Amino acid sequence: MRPTAKFSISFGLVTIPVAAYNATDTAASVSFVRLHTADGGRVRNQPVCSLEGTEISPDEIGRGYRTDDGTLVPLTDDDLDALPLPTARTLTILAFVAGGDIDPLQIGKGYYLGVDGPAAAKPYALLRDAMERHRRVGLGKIALHGRETLAMIRPVEDVLVMQVLLWPHQIRPMTGVLPEREVKVAANEVRAAETLMDSFGALSEEDVHDHYREALEEIVAAKLARREPEFAAGEEQPAGQVKDLMAALQDSVRAAKRARGETVEAEETEGTDRAAGAGRAGGGARSSGRTATRATARKTATARKTAERQPAKPTATGTAKAGSATDAAAKGRAATGKKAAAAKGTGAKKAAGTARKTSAAKQTAGRGRKAG
After folding, report:
1. pTM higher than 0.70 for the full model?
2. Spatial separation of the C-alpha atoms in residues 123 and 14, rounded to whole Å
3. What does the angle CA 125 – CA 128 – CA 130 come to, to the nearest 5 degrees?
4. Rg of the chain over CA atoms, in angstroms?
5. Which run of H or E residues covers position 81?
6. What is the pLDDT of residue 67?
7. Cβ distance 144 to 96 under 8 Å?
8. What span, in angstroms and rounded, lies between the C-alpha atoms of 11 and 92?
């Protein structure tokens, strides 16, 4: 591997000559070329001189700086090397911070830093081990490929790695990205999402494999052989809008467990279904809450009426008192019955006497009419 740049790391009064090597290989990624759709011809980006109108070779291409009025000023490598900046040949570490303090949006291309000469081996290992034990990364500035940039140095295994960082003003604001209205998420939905996160487990080699590249190569091979591409049957990913978020989370947890070969118990399925029902109820909390309140009120009123119609269950003392009251009531009813019977007897005798008097009067009247 050939170095792309050489410079020194300034660590206080310690100087470490290093060589930078590209840590990434973009050539291994999927890339396309442009074609003329009418005849399949290759469309190329050809460097053409704007003054002569002819194509030029890469050896004739240099760099220049455009001024505000549009003037192009040629600049050579010697001109750039003569810049009176400490970052032109040296990466000066300005601070040591925790790695979590670096905004991931700022992290750019990575370089492996190797020692440039035997004398750099010991200070190189000293800086690497100190950052590893102190759990810090170094921040500095370096002029790389004709421009000054921020850089972060961190230890990765036994090697120092430099990450180019974007300047803070190069990070665009988030205006217009967030939803217009605030979205509220229920606590049970957050817990379900955390459960789903825990169910994912660690990454496997299959997860970090470039399946897209393999599928693309199969399509190319099929076109060359004039056949249909052959793909392994995969699980179809759900598509469309999720209407029930809680149910989707619970189904995802069960699917993740099945993918790992774990058995999903029936009780767990019922429990997650109940949780999903609770999530659905939380989604319409206002209307369902009012319905539940009215139903509870109706049940309470019915229970009160039933309690009023039914006698309360007696206690031991209450049972004795109730027994005495019952006996007294029975005796009262018996006495009342006797009085009613006596009254009926007296009434019957009076009625019988009155009837006899009436009959005698009728007979006397009859005899008087006969005598006249």
Report:
1. no
2. 7
3. 105
4. 50
5. helix 77-81
6. 92
7. no
8. 7
